[in-house]
Design goal:
- The structure holds two protein chains of two kinds.
- Chain A is built from eleven helices and no strands.
- Chain A is mostly helical.
- The two termini of chain A are 41 Å apart.
- In chain A, 27% of the residues are buried.
- Chain B is α/β, with parallel strands linked by helices.
- Helices cover 40% and strands 14% of the residues of chain B.
- Chain B has eleven helices and eight strands.
- Chain B has a six-stranded mixed β-sheet with strand order 4-5-6-1-7-8. Chain B has a two-stranded antiparallel ribbon with strand order 2-3.
- In chain B, strand 5, helix 6 and strand 6 form a beta-alpha-beta unit.
- Chain B starts with 17 loop residues before the first strand and ends with a helix.
- The chains are: A mainly alpha, B alpha/beta.
């Protein structure tokens, strides 16, 4: 039932793209995200999507990226239908839908290929306050845990005769209450326990936190960054001067 | 080769039996019991409950006859009161209002929780929550009761009571299947014991026979109950491991009389 979340969860994998410095991966992600917002023609989107596809192949995450894509299809359909209903022409609606796909898949590139530890290091390199980094990274790290909780709660309630898919729309929404309440309660209990455990291990004792790993740019990172920058400049130039 | 979580499982569990499933962490115990009410369906082979394949009906339909109590009570508790928590499943199964009242009252009294009937279940202690989960399953009187780690967080008295409940259920022709790491608890129950190792049934025999198989117990990371350990140490003197302290006492008194 929660198969779609696979597309957002980091898994250790042996690929060239995974070994690139997370700052460069974040840059690639943001670059593709921004270019998706700038693009206005089908050809431009095809170029961006082919690049995302190429990165998916390179990082061996294509299958999981496809899961997110399948999940976002319903939203995609909604975006398309609303645009058409509001009165925009079909071409414009297609472009908006393509933009939606590009934005979603460019974001998932970073999260699929960077571990929460890498995310923490990246945020640290931006000198953000540590409490904020910790809260954000913990939230990302707990996505799979909460997902597992949700599966177990659902199993538990189904074993007590709850049929989620039964009844009309209102009944179905109500059916989710026995799943949502324990999930929220569990999340609150867990956050409290986590806070206590962290404080017991001297969280916040010293202002300056040391780190076991540090980020260092290597040749391949410089290469990847240069290729991305060149692509970005070429793409923007092509949009404004060649009107592709 | 495909990697299966469970493989070569071939078991048949009759009514009125007490069955324990043991094995090291990750051996597939919880995965196995989730097949009993159709929460999980096998990729190959079949699971039949009262002759019906679990693929042929809903989880709710099988749950009416197979009650599954999960390990973590916090994964099921959601109602505003203890009373409603027990009544939840009965309402799902479509019981009459009068019957629901009777059964909820019985279950809460039986597990010594009736005094909390109007309080929030979230305010109960860990052991009480565990008993509440048991009550909420026994209330609809399923034929098979599957308990995942029922003794965790229970004090000695509650464990004793739980053992009595399990025995009482077996005399009423109910089947109780227990997944547990608590060897002492299992030993006192003397159930049929299924030992799982790496997703396969390593041994399926009486409790006494399984606890004699040192090689398998080592493989599954299970420590023997103290009474079996005592028997091993005194093998020439004792003919069989004592079940409890009382039996051990009478055996030793006899031996002392003999002057051994």
């Amino acid at each position: 039932m929660f198969w779609f979340a696979e597309g957002l969860i980091y898994r250790r994998q042996d690929s060239v793209f995974h070994t690139i410095d997370p700052r460069v991966k974040l840059f690639v992600s943001i670059m593709l995200f921004s270019l998706s917002l700038l693009s206005n023609t089908i050809l431009e989107f095809l170029i961006i999507l082919s690049l995302i596809f190429f990165i998916g192949v390179l990082s061996k995450t294509l299958k999981r990226m496809a899961k997110t894509f399948v999940f976002s299809l319903s939203f995609l359909a909604m975006v398309f239908i609303i645009n058409v209903l509001v009165g925009y022409d079909i071409m414009f609606s297609i472009i908006i839908s393509l933009r939606f796909i590009s934005v979603v898949s460019s974001t998932s590139i970073f999260f699929l290929t960077s571990s929460p530890d890498e995310l923490e290091l990246v945020m640290k390199s931006f000198h953000l306050p540590y409490d904020l980094i910790f809260a954000f990274v913990t939230a990302v790290r707990f996505v799979p845990v909460i997902m597992l909780d949700a599966i177990q709660i659902l199993d538990s309630q189904r074993s007590r005769g709850l049929e989620i898919e039964k009844g009309n729309l209102i009944k179905r929404i109500k059916n989710y209450l026995p799943v949502l309440i324990p999930l929220i309660v569990q999340a609150i209990i867990r956050s409290e326990e986590l806070a206590e455990a962290m404080e017991s291990r001297a969280y916040g004792y010293s202002k300056k936190k040391t780190s076991y790993y540090s980020l260092r740019l290597r040749k391949r990172d410089y290469f990847a960054a240069s290729v991305s920058i060149c692509f970005m400049i070429a793409f923007i130039l092509a949009i404004y001067f060649l009107h592709i | 080769m495909k990697n299966y979580v469970l493989n070569n499982i071939n078991i048949r569990i009759e009514l009125g039996q007490i069955v324990a499933i043991m094995g090291s962490n990750g051996s597939g115990k919880t995965t196995l019991i989730k097949h009993f009410n159709g929460l999980l369906k096998p990729n190959e082979g079949f699971v039949k409950v009262f002759g019906k394949d679990t693929r042929d009906d809903s989880v709710a339909a099988f749950s009416r006859r197979v009650g599954l109590v999960f390990q973590n009570p916090d994964h099921q508790i959601f109602s505003d009161t203890v009373w409603n928590e027990v009544a939840f499943a009965l309402k799902n199964f479509g019981f009459e209002e009068e019957v629901i009242k009777k059964r909820v009252k019985w279950a809460l009294e039986f597990f010594n929780l009736i005094q909390y009937k109007d309080t929030s279940p979230l305010l109960l202690s860990g052991g009480e929550k565990k008993r509440l989960c048991l009550a909420s399953i026994l209330a609809w009187d399923p034929d098979y009761i599957v308990l995942d780690e029922p003794t965790v967080g229970q004090d000695f008295l509650q464990k004793e009571k739980l053992r009595e409940v399990i025995k009482m259920l077996a005399t009423r022709n109910k089947t109780v299947i227990i997944v547990s790491h608590d060897v002492e608890f299992i030993w006192r129950l003397q159930p049929r014991l299924i030992l799982l190792s790496n997703g396969e049934v390593a041994m399926d025999d009486t409790c006494a026979n399984v606890f004699q198989n040192n090689v398998l117990l080592d493989k599954c990371g299970i420590v023997k109950p103290q009474f079996v350990e005592l028997f091993d140490q005194l093998t020439p003197l004792l003919t069989h491991p004592p079940l409890d302290v009382l039996e051990a006492r009478s055996i030793f008194l006899k031996l002392m009389k003999k002057g051994e």
